[in-house]
Amino acid sequence: MPTTAAWEGVVTELVAQRGDALLRYATLLCGSREDAADLVQDALVRTFGRLRNGFGVESAEAYVRRAILNAHLDGGRRTTRWRKIAPLEYRPDEQPSPALASEERLDLHEELRKLTPRERACLVLRYYDDLKVDDIAETLGISSGAVKRYLSDGLAKMAISLADDGTPDDRLYPKKEARRGHRV
Q1: Which tens digits make up the pLDDT trace of 9-54?
Q2: Which is nearest to 140 in space by CA: 153, 125, 128?
Q3: Distance CA 28, CA 40 (A)
Q4: Which CATH number does 103-184 carry?
């Protein structure tokens, strides 16, 4: 029977050495530092909830990352189901001034938050974990074609957001350089 001290030492070492990296990974997936902390905590509990022996820090990190990804995707499924049955969101009659929008800075986390859970997971696995399409497909248990679609859709959504910063010039004159005879 594995000893409690063996796996507790691995958890302590994992959190000390890789805790910040796990938190960044979870933050990219879910878009909120508070939710990310909960994801990491839940993943650690799921991974080490039963006495486990033979884990090194590297293999434990791989299990915890997978648990983080699975928990995020499961939460996304629940959210998607809830959106289908939830009442319409209340929106106040007062709208914020459009002048405030031009003062906001572009935030990668905000752009990632706009994506579906699968699109976000594919983008994070591709560009943060540096996995290839086939590896992402294997990790998520979906086809390579689906991964390519999620990557394409996610990048397209982010490109649209990045191209249109909401300023009046973008909305009124989207091809301003083309009108002046410059190549775009």
Answers
A1: 888 888 899 889 999 999 988 888 888 899 999 888 888 876 566 6
A2: 125
A3: 12
A4: 1.10.10.10
Whether the CA torsion 17, 18, 20, 23 is positive or negative: it is: negative
Scanning the structure block, which residue is given the tokens 């209340």? 90
Sign of CA dihedral 131, 135, 137, 143: positive
Instruction: From 110, 121, 108, 27, select the one nearest 74 (Cα to Cα).
Output: 121
Are 57 and 21 in contact, with CB atoms under 8 Å apart?
A: no
CATH code 1.10.10.10 region(s) in the chain: 103-184
Residues with Cβ within 8 Å of 163's Cβ and at least 6 positions away in sequence, in order, are 170
> Alpha-carbon torsion 32, 36, 37, 42, what sign?
positive
Report how far residue 118's alpha carbon sits from residue 153's, in angstroms, rounded to the nearest whole number: 10
Which of 41, 38, 33 lies closest to 11 in space, CA to CA? Answer: 41
What is the maximum span of the chain, computed from C-alpha positions, in angstroms?
A: 76
Q: What is the pTM (predicted TM-score) of this model? A: 0.56
Q: Which of 5-9, 15-19, 63-67, 146-150 has the lowest mean pLDDT?
A: 5-9
Residue listed under structure tokens 């859970």: 117
**Position of tokens 């594995």?**
2
